[in-house]
Amino acid sequence: MRKTSCFIFLLGALCLPKSHAARPDGAIPFIFDSHLYLQATLNDTVPVTIIYDTGADFLYLDKDFLELNHLQEAFGRKGTARMGGAGNSDPQRVDIFIDPIKIRCGKLDYQNKITPIIGLRDILGRYIDGLLGNTHLLQAPLMINFSESYIAPLAEPLPPDSLAGYHKLETRFEENRIDVKARLQIDSANVVEGWFRMDLGSGSTVSLTNESSSALHLDQVPKAYFRTQAGGVGGGSEDITLRASRFCLADTLDNLVIDCSLNQKGALSSNRPYVGIIGNEIWSLYDIVIDPLHASVWVKRNQNEGTYSRSSLSHMATVDRTDIGDGWIVNGLYQGGIAERAGIEIGDTIIAINGRPVKEITWEEQRNGLGLKGETRYTVRKADGKTVTYRLFIHDQII
Fold first, then answer.
1. Domain 8-153 sits in which CATH superfamily?
2. Which residues contact 105 (CB under 8 A, 6 or more apart)?
3. Is the pTM of this model over 0.85?
4. Span 215-229, mean pLDDT?
5. Domain-by-domain residue ranges, the chain?
6. 12 pLDDT higher than 60
7. Residue 175: CB partners within 8 Å, gap ≥ 6?
8. Annotation: CATH topology of 167-301
9. pLDDT-based confidence at 22, cuts 50/70/90?
10. For 69, phi and psi rounded to 5 degrees?
11. What is the pLDDT of residues 93-129, one digit of tens each?
């Protein structure tokens, strides 16, 4: 999936994962679907599904979640602020709750001072109500266990045997963000190394900033151009997708698909204190311990095969908005891909696939993959209200 966060803020019922054997006391289970979906409660009464985003600070709530559940006034007084993100635009003015909101996630309680109201579902789909950043979940050492699908606060100091088999990354903590040293080799002529931002709010592999991308020599490198209307809180985004020969973090990953940002603004543009961000298609390959008290990140390779070497088969990106309509919104397209060539446009609503209404396709089916192959019929509602059926022959990855 191509879902990126890296938030910048300027003031002015889940199915349990399959295994429980290794969970310590106080563990918080999550569902992994490009992001870590957790259960929380607001003000002791309002259940929410949130994601953990290390590219964010505190609690953010989705505007459609509030509207659909008649909660627009449920959390007190409102104000406004300016907020930016990974999208290619200047910071946007958003509403905020200025009264504190109590958050309970697992056994952990927090008090959020201000809470921005943003369009999270436009980026990630109907199954998200909000997100939590580092201020709340990273007050003490934290384990993120992708093997057993839980996060858990750890005792301080860490028990001597708790890091057995883990590799310590070169890490820095600055302004509530986490950066790690890594090396990306696209080919013999193109190497990027330095600080990469740890971003659990990104569902991608590695995304280079525009500044890093501009220094590369990619004329002879096979690539695909992608644009989306939902690149992050800052709006749309543009990048190129290509294959890199290897990525060195704790170990070496070969033949991975990466993104090179073309954005002129936002968290993936220029003048950033990092050369790129690392998303969950990479992090999910490891079990992780983050120790903010000692500015340390430890990782241990797990058994997850991951999807880091796969690129899009449909050559488009969609987001499930059956909470407010009857379909999935096309929010991104690869230039010259099978979807664009067939006539599908950004903003179209897919209402059926091979005659099956997408409203019938469960989240679990979506997470497991629909296994579409060969001639596939997409029934689409256009912006003018007309319904059109497109036939796509799904076979090759875009890159």
1. Acid Proteases (2.40.70.10)
2. 28, 38, 39, 40, 41, 50, 132, 136, 137
3. yes
4. 96
5. 8-153, 167-301, 316-394
6. no
7. none
8. Cathepsin D, subunit A; domain 1 (2.40.70)
9. low
10. -105, 15
11. 899 999 999 999 999 899 999 999 999 999 999 999 9
